Amino acid sequence: MLASKTLYETDFHLWLEETAQALRDGNLERLDRENLLEEIEAMGRSDRRAIRRNLEQLLMHLLKWHYQPDKLTNSWKYSIREHRKRLLEDFEESPSLKRYYEEVFPQCYQNAREMASDETGLKLSIFPLLCPFNQTEILDIRNLPDQTY
Question: What is the pTM of this model?
């Protein structure tokens, strides 16, 4: 176990390979369980952070698109499409992340309101306290607010 911890600290990639081989072989005694558990938990946290970041960016650009129609850019359209795509791919790969998305949605929307206010210079009060978009609109890759293409 000490050797594995040393390997974890000195050559992470080799540690991964040896951990995977120990699992394949069913040799659980060779596992560095403490670091393996830490890495698995970190993977889950990383997936959840990605959901939050993509949702906040998506909501911010949807708000900008809706509340500044005279300043629409292809960059905003690209960002909306890209962040929707990332979310949908994450949900396809790990359907349980959809529950997390729903759980953090209210806070992500509030963060997106602040970000949209900062980026546009519009007062925060311009953006409604409750999200003006429904779930279908938010995740529909073919739909932009007030416009279908």
Answer: 0.79
Which has more confidence, 144 or 86?
A: 86
Domain boundaries, the chain: 47-148
Closest CA to 52 of 88, 20, 87: 87
Kindly report the three-state secondary structure assignment for every residue of 54-81: HHHHHHHHHHHHHHCHHHCCHHHHHHHH
- What are the C-alpha distances in Å from 98 to residues 16, 87, 102? 29, 9, 6
Single-letter residue type at 30: R
Contacts made by residues 42-50, CB under 8 angstroms, sequence distance 24+: 47/90, 47/94, 47/97, 48/97, 48/100, 48/104, 50/86, 50/90
What number is the average pLDDT over the span 108-118?
A: 98
- Pair of tokens at residue 72: 């629409």
Spatial distance between the Cα atoms of 87 and 22, rounded to a whole number of angstroms: 33
Structure tokens at 27: 């040799």
| Residue 5 confidence (pLDDT) | 54
Alpha-carbon distances, residue 67 vs 1, 103, 105, 136 (angstroms): 58, 26, 20, 19
